[in-house]
Every structure is written in C-alpha cells, then in structure tokens.
Fold this sequence. Notes:
The structure is a homodimer. By secondary structure, the first copy, chain A, is α/β, with parallel strands linked by helices. Chain A has helices spanning 18-28, 42-51, 73-78, 84-93, 106-117, 152-170, 191-202, 215-220, 230-254, 259-267, 269-279, 305-320, 323-336; strands at residues 4-9, 34-40, 58-62, 99-102, 127-134, 137-142, 176-180, 208-213, 225-227, 287-290, 296-298.
Amino acid sequence: MSELTLSIDAMGGDAAPDVVLDGIQQFSEEGKDTRFLLHGRQAELEEGITARGLSAICEVCDQPEVVAMNAKPSSALRKAKGTSMWSMIEAVKDGRAAAGVSAGNTGALMAMSMLALRKMEGVHRPAMTAVWPTLEGRCVVLDVGANLDADAEQLIEFAVMGESYARAVFGKERPTVGLLNIGAEEEKGPDAIRLAGEILRNRDLGIDFRGYVEGNDISMGAVDVVVTDGFTGNVALKTAEGTARLVSTYVRQALTASPLSKMGALLAGPGLKDLRKKMNPSSVNGGVLLGLNGVVVKSHGGADADGYATAIRLAANLAHSNYMQEVATGLVRVSKQGIGSESVDG
Amino acid sequence: MSELTLSIDAMGGDAAPDVVLDGIQQFSEEGKDTRFLLHGRQAELEEGITARGLSAICEVCDQPEVVAMNAKPSSALRKAKGTSMWSMIEAVKDGRAAAGVSAGNTGALMAMSMLALRKMEGVHRPAMTAVWPTLEGRCVVLDVGANLDADAEQLIEFAVMGESYARAVFGKERPTVGLLNIGAEEEKGPDAIRLAGEILRNRDLGIDFRGYVEGNDISMGAVDVVVTDGFTGNVALKTAEGTARLVSTYVRQALTASPLSKMGALLAGPGLKDLRKKMNPSSVNGGVLLGLNGVVVKSHGGADADGYATAIRLAANLAHSNYMQEVATGLVRVSKQGIGSESVDG
C-alpha cells in the first residue's frame, strides 16, 4: 500500500486527546505506512505526540475550538469554524487527507460532513453504518440513524452503498444483501420495503440479494449487509447493545455466585478472556456516513485505544478501496433502470 | 381465587397435544383451582388426559380439524369452522371460558380472534404484547407485530392497554410507560411519536409516562411498558432474541474451549444453571392481542411444558384481573381529551 494520510479530530471523544493518540500509536505499531494530520489545540497535542514517539508521522493543525458533545447540530454548524472537527473534515474535502476520523458529537459530525463534503451524485440521502458482530463474523447494518425513514429508492441506494462498503471493509468479493422486514414472505411488510424487495429481486443491479431478513437473522450472520431505514436500524442496534449488556450481566452474576463459581471462572479463564474479546465493542467500533464525497469515520465517543485503532483501520481500508467509484457505478446502474417512479402495484 | 375455566387449543403448537397436556399438568400442580376446556381430536386427547390424571379438571370439545402452522391467515379464516383454534376462541366469546390459550399459527390466531371477539369500543387497532426480561425483572413491549405502523392516537391506545396489562400481569400498582424512540430529547423522532409524546406528557391520562426510551433501555428495565409500532417492536424483539442467542453461543464456546474450561464450568454449575434459567425463553412465554372483547394468549409454537404453563399462568392472571374494565375506563379518558384530531405543530 502506498503512503496514506488520515485526518484526525484529536479533540473529539470522552477521553480526547489521550485515547486518540493512544489509538494512533496502536495503529502505527501494526506497521502501516500512514501519516496523520491532527486537528486540535497544538499546545495540548505536541506533548502527547512527543511522549509517544509519534512526531515523525503526526502533523498538528492548530484549532482552538472543540465541539461540545451535547451541542445541537444546528448550533455546532453555526460555530463550526475554528473547531477541530470542522478542520478535520476540511482536510478530507481538500484532498490533504484520504479519509478522516472523529469520536466527537455524532449529530454535529453528520451535519458538518454533509455541508462540507456534500452528497455524491445520485445519492438522495446518506446513510450511517454500524458493523455488527455475528455468528459468521461481521455484517454491516445501514441506515442506523442518519434519517428517520426511507422510501424504496433510498433503500436501494443504501443496498448499493452497503454492498460496496462491505466489499471494501470485509474484503468479501461478493457480499450478500438482505432487507430487514418482519417476515420472510414476499408479501410481508410496509410498501416501501416490498417495492424495494421487488426491484432488488428482479432488476439487474449487480447485487447478490437474498430477500428479507428478520431481526434475529442479523446476529446469526444470514447476510453481509442488512438494509433498513434509520429509525428501525437505530432501534435494532441499541436493542442489541442492551441485550448483550443484560446477558453479560447474567453471565458475570453466574460466575461470581459462590466461591465454587469463582474458582470455576478462574479455571475457565482463557475461554472467558476470549469471550470478553468477542463481546468487546472495540472490535466493531466505527460508523461511516455513506454517500458523501469523502470518507469520515465516526468512532464511539467512549471508545478506548483499541476501539480508536479499529476506527482508524476502517478509515484506512476505505481510503485504500474503490468504494466511492463502485458506489458511483452502482448508482448509475440504478438510475438506468428508471427506479424511483414506481408503486408496489404498478 | 374462585374457580376459573380456561379454553385451550390442544392441537396448536409444534409438539401438540403432548406439550399442551404437560403444561396443563404442570400448571395444575401449582394448586390453582382451574378447569380446562380442551379443543381438539377427542380420541387423541382422552388418552393423554387419563395418563396424566387430569380427567377431573379437563373437558374435551371434539374438533376434527387443525390449523396448519404455515397456513395464511385469510385461508385459515375461510376454513375456521371445525378447527380446534376456532372452537377455543368461541368458548371465550360465549363466556364458557374466562380466557384462552393457543400455541398455533400466530397470523391465523390474530385473524380469528379479531373476527370472533371484535375490538373493544374505543380501540382502533389491537396490539400484540411480548414480555421481555430486563435487569429489573420484566417489562412488556407492544405492539410487536399486529400492525405495520401506528399513528399518535394508536400509540396512546397502546400505552393505555399496556399499562393495564402490566398492572394485571406484573402486579405493579402503577407501571411506568415509555415511548420507544431514537433519542431522549423531546424534539427527536418521527411525527407520530413526537405527537404521542406531547400528549402523554401534558394530558391527564392517569399514566406514569417517563418520556422516550431507546433500544438499549428496554433490557435495562428503564420502564415497565415500552410502546412502539408493530414493525419496530417486531424487529426489536427478534433482534434481541438473535443477540441473546449469539452471546449464549459465545458463552458456551468459552466454557468448552479446553479441558480446564470444562472443569471450570462444572465447578460453576449452580450459577450457570441459574443463568440457563434466566435465559430460558419459557419464563417469558405468552403474547396477548390486546384490545379485543376477550383474552386469548399466544404461546410460542415451540414452547416446552414450562413455557406452556407460563402462558396458562398469563391467561389466568389476566382473567382474574380488571384488565378489560381498566382499558375501557382509560380509553374513555383518552377520548374525553379529544385526542385524534391534532398535529405536532397545532
């Protein structure tokens, strides 16, 4: 791989800039030939960079302001100038960096990215991704909250973007795609989903469409790409997080219930360590607002260094891929099929 | 408690009638003074009843037909007469039984119940419930699939019905209610949810409304009643099932990874047994289509005897409660507030 420059919002996230710098250090130890453009308060950053021996690969772009984690997107937009987040995005826009990462305020990041990078030609609405652990490995779910709803045409665009994304990030030649619904039969579900399903089944969009999937199919790894509207995707993602937390609590209780249980847990140590690793949200950290002229990865605000390194890896993989070109080609294919002026019955 | 008669679709479910009879036996061993009206093939049933010593509390209503598990609701409706399911519902309608249970085809059961029992006055759309295990115990989520969507008025009706249901089933004096959304702030989410939220916050409906809850709040037990539309609720429920299954698989793998792990699991035995009990879907089996003139409980088709007994217990609790009266009173309160002709901005 050729040298890559990534743009980093060094001030975004609950424990910035320390966790950000730790994440960069961890990623750089993997031996990737990557340089970083760090946006934030120079005085605060230089010390940490030097202490971690990262001076050779990090350049600081001094920005005095930080977007508050609880700021409303509209207010953040008005005061964007001079913030580390805005500066990070501008570097992606100008081509000084191939992709960007921020662990800051999600709403602000989406709004600023939309404004600065603008939508790709042919995209009606960008969609936010989430990588999801499954029995088979990982899948990507989109949209998980960039929009409140989606019509059939938008769902198809999500399918095109998600398929290219899965190829870039999971390295699968031909990712499988499913539409999230409440039954497997063709006649089930709301109009928009049925129409999108009909088109994905019958038109040549170059997508390996596997039909409808239900909520339980996501974690089972039934498909590589799960397409849904932003409201449903957001609820599903958070419901899964809550359930995983509940079950983890049960397991912890079971393994500390008595002295014997505790001794058992000690013996089962290596297996349980593996379990903790699998359950660690760091391994799937990083969402991307797909459909813009540029790649910006959103890291979880509370991600640790492992998690931040995962988000950087995601940005690097996307930057090295043909994701943007593929999406452009896919969307041309969609528009050639004249999709967008149909009804379920028509 | 006075003597109760429950109506049972003895032929519905993957392992009917054996599991049904085992469930009845298990429930009756709890010492409840309950009689059962069993609908199904007399010849098949009598033997099992006698073998389990249930003759004194079971009466059979001979019905030759069984609704196929994969029959479409419309087709099942046309051929309802003579089926064990239809006969079970008719006994509830006629007042020969205080409530009914079936582990048969869900779509057919909903369609037949709607047709035979009809909607309560003031209810626009019935809603299907699911009991959900939480860190705090249990909560009820509705609608989980009776409808595809819900407007503000319907969401409020779901809140009224769910609140009474939680009181009847969980025995809580004043259950708390939340609206499922994708953020906690009042201005978040689709129009229908924002309008419903505004009304539940500001009008005196006698409901302890706690505002919006997000997907992760369900399993955390943030509220006793989670109100949502049928599409979202169904996706959330199945997503949680899939996630729980994924995590359970991880745990099993961790505890059988090596001979030491296995020994550890052996030592932790009692705690793990507790875990299996908590993760056992039998403990939360049973959904109810709320808003009809009569109570019919849907057991999972694959429920075991434990699970079937749980569904019977649910039917008995509802039959003993003031649930129907309370819902009627609640809906009058809603209609007095003139809800149903408003917009978010109006």
